[in-house]
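User: MULE transposase domain-containing protein. Structure?
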Amino acid sequence: MPDVDATYQSLEEAVEMYKLYADKLGFGVRLPNYTFEYKYVDSVLNAMFWADETDKLYYKEFGDVISFDSTFRTNKYGMIFVPFTAIDNHKCSINIGACLLSNKSSESYRWLLDVVLKPHGKHPQSPKYNFHDI
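Assistant: Predicted structure:
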C-alpha cells in the first residue's frame, strides 16, 4: 500500500503506482472507453477527472441537464470531491463522471468543465451553471 506522503521521481512513476495499486485492490481500469485527465504543477497533483464507459453512455442518454457539487472536502488529502450527476428515466441519480480538485479557483473550474465535456462530445441541452461557491 502506498504512503500518503509518498514522493515520486516523475508523474509517470506515480501513475504506474496508482495502476498497480488499483489492480491489486480489484478496481483497476477494465473498460475500453475510460477517460482519465489530470493536471499537476511542480509535481503536485492539482486536479483529476475520470469517467468510464458507463458514465459516458449515461451522459449520452440522460445528459440534458447535469449537476455537480463541489462542497465535499473531508478526504485525507484535503481535495474537493466533485461528482457529476444526471437523472435517468426512473428519476434516479446517475454518475456521469467525477473529479478531485485542490482548490475552488475559477481556473480549476474552467479546466474541469473543459475536461468534462471532452469525453462526452456534446454540451448539455440546457446548461445551467451556478458558481455561488467560487
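DSSP finds three helices and five strands in the chain. The radius of gyration is 16 Å.
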